Amino acid sequence: MKKEEIKEMSTQDLKERLDQMVQEYAQLKINHAISPIDNPAKITADRKMIARVKTELRQRELNNK
Predict the structure, then answer these.
(1) How far apart are the first and last CA of the chain?
(2) What is the distance between the alpha carbons of residues 65 and 43, in angstroms, rounded to a whole number?
(3) Burial annotation 40-60 (CB, 10 A radius, 16+ → b, else e)
(4) pLDDT digits (tens, 9 = 90+) for 1-41
(5) Separation of alpha carbons 18 and 53, rounded Å
(6) Is the dihedral of CA 13, 18, 19, 24 positive or negative?
(7) Which residues contact residue 65 at a Cβ distance below 8 angstroms, ignoring those fewer than 6 apart?
(8) Cβ–Cβ contacts within 10 Å for residue 16, how many?
């Protein structure tokens, strides 16, 4: 998902997607702790994507006030 795609999504969709991404990230971390995953860079990429979505949600919150 790119920044442009994030900005086009509705706030409700972003919140739902964020919840899903956080759950997937947590599961990925657990799996990696048990046995190393093939692509450990995915952990970093997922964490950055979660941060992008949170940033967009926060910007929308500040703009609505």
Answers:
(1) 27
(2) 34
(3) eeeeeebeebbeebeebeeee
(4) 788 899 899 999 999 999 999 999 999 999 999 999 999 99
(5) 7
(6) positive
(7) none
(8) 12
The runs of H, that is alpha helices, within the chain are 3-8, 11-34, 41-64
What global pTM score does this model have? Answer: 0.89
Is the distance from CB of 4 to CB of 47 less than 8 angstroms? no
Residue of higher predicted confidence among 4 and 43: 43
Q: Which residues make Cβ contacts (< 8 Å) with residue 39, sequence separation at least 6?
A: none
